[in-house]
Amino acid sequence: MATAYEPTHPSYFDEADLRTELTRVFDLCHGCRLCLHLCPAFPTMFNSIDARDGDVAGLTTREQDQVVDECYQCKLCYLKCPYIPPHEWELDFPRLMMRANAVKVRNNHQTVSQKLADQLLSRTDLLGTVSVKLSGITNKALSTNSTIVRKTMERVMGIAAERVLPPYAKQRFSVWYRKRIKPFVENRRAKAAIYPTCFIEYQDPEIGKDLVAVFERNGIECALPDGVKCCGAPWLHSGNVDQFKKVAEKNVTALVSQARQGNPIIVAQPTCAYVIKRDYPLYIKTQEARDVADATYDSSEYLMQMHKSGGGISLEFSGSVPESVTYHVPCHMQALSIGFKSRDLLKLAGIKVTVVNKCSGIDGTWGYRRDNYELSKKVSSGLAKAIEKSTGQVMAGDCHLANTAITEETGRRVFHPMQIVARAYGIGEGNDDQIESK
CA-to-CA distance for 212 and 209, rounded, in angstroms? Predict the structure, then answer.
């Protein structure tokens, strides 16, 4: 990996070195332009360069920083770019943007509002723990329509008052898991460690419940490792490398024994899976981090692997099976380069699946911020139009943040694929009247 993207290199936080690398990469992008329509960052870059008659080196610091600010880490440009490593030009645009944010934080170039927003949005475990205990009050206060609390948050912390935020659950997933009567898993074929992510832990534990039930139906005994926390993506994407590494190291310590016992680590949210698989080994650089990364799977990915090479999974779908599903494939799921495993899993139940491949414009915490709200809405409007053209009876998606944006744009409820598969097995029927049977 090039020096520009190596977090432990002594020049990584050097701003002069960063500016040189930004100029180099912008010049390459300017001559290519394959990524023009992927996100706002590229049109902004090309317009600035064109206004200077192609003089990339003449871009001001402010013009460079605007490109950085408009990158929301969807990773799609990396998938499209012809110059990624091992090409001699070693271009990795998303990691360069993360480096720029890291330099901004390290050199204290943030406003007070930006610092406060980073602290609130990145401390997901603290916020989640408190918010679940006070879920009635919290959900009312954080609801949209510009409540007093939300207006204050926008003014002080820069978090958009109009943005719909996912509500908090009344009970944490881990509390439910440890209180439940653990069933005897018949024909036990494997044991899996469930990494719940902060979305399932604090906001939608029903996804986790259905995931566990689907895995147990297929002979996979589930375990919930002690000590796991938020994956740290909010810290990483906001540029706070030091805080990210602290969180990552704790999670690796909590998960490595499972990996070394040969147990897959199952993650039902693509951003978290990407961070564990791709970012932990890069920032921590230990064998333990590599072992955890190698053992980590998306939930649908693992079931499809079992179906194809592990003796199959149950195909007795006696429950409610929708005739058709519109499935939104999240950007970070594509970045994992594992294929559309949730789509494939739904097809096993006899469901006709239409794939919608558009970004939601949320991407971590980027779309929550006041300064990005209008740009985010422009991005998500394209997704909404694609969904409106689809004919799926039920809406599905793996990413909780993207699903919330879809609901905000279209008014449609979005189900995680594990929830649809669970109902197809007859698990939890009656809980979701919008998942209709054939």
Answer: 5
Do residues 31 and 124 touch, judged by C-beta distance below 8 A? no
Nearest-CA neighbor of 196 among 171, 161, 165, 163?
Answer: 171
Residue whose C-alpha is closest to residue 79's, from 30, 16, 35, 31: 35
| Structure token pair of residue 317 | 């779908």
H or E stretch including 221?
strand 220-223
Contact in structure between 207 and 270 (CB atoms under 8 Å): no
Residue 407 near residue 309 (C-beta atoms within 8 A)? no
Q: Cα(121)–Cα(118) distance, rounded to whole angstroms?
A: 5
In the CATH hierarchy, which fold is given to the domain comprising 324-424?
Rossmann fold (3.40.50)
Tell which phi-psi region holds residue 75, choosing left (phi > 0), alpha (psi between -120 and 50) or beta: left
**CA dist., res. 133 & res. 150, Å (int):** 20
Tokens of 185: 């898993």
Q: Residue 148 forms beta bridges with which residues?
A: none
**Secondary structure of residue 191 in the 3-state scheme:** strand
Computed over every residue of the chain, the mean pLDDT equals: 92
Pairing of strands 414-415, 352-356: unpaired
**What's the rounded Cα separation, in Å, for the pair 269 and 355?**
18
Neighbours of 350 (CB within 10 A): 13
Q: Which residues pair with 192 in a beta bridge?
A: 222
Is residue 230 within 8 Å of residue 196, measured between CB atoms?
no
- The pLDDT score that the predictor gives to residue 174 is 96
Q: What are phi and psi of 167, to 5 degrees?
A: -75, 165
3-state SS of the chain: helix, strand, coil percent to 5? 55, 10, 35
Q: What is the pLDDT confidence band of residue 430, given thresholds at 50, 70 and 90?
A: low
CA distance 405 to 85: 33
Task: Please choose, from the candidates 322, 329, 323, the residue with its C-alpha nearest in 3D space to the C-alpha of residue 387.
Answer: 329
Which single residue is written with the structure tokens 């701003």?
15
* CB of 98 closer than 8 Å to CB of 121: no
Grouping H, G, I as helix, E, B as strand and the rest as coil, residue 193 is: strand
Query: For residue 165, how many other CB atoms are within 10 A of its CB?
Result: 19
pLDDT band at 119 (very low <50, low <70, confident <90, very high): confident
Beta bridge partners of 265: 193, 296
- 267: β partners: 195, 298
pLDDT, position 434: 55
The ranges assigned to domains in the chain are 3-106, 112-157, 173-309, 324-424
Q: Quickly name the fold that domain 173-309 has.
A: Glutathione S-transferase Yfyf (Class Pi); Chain A, domain 2 (1.20.1050)
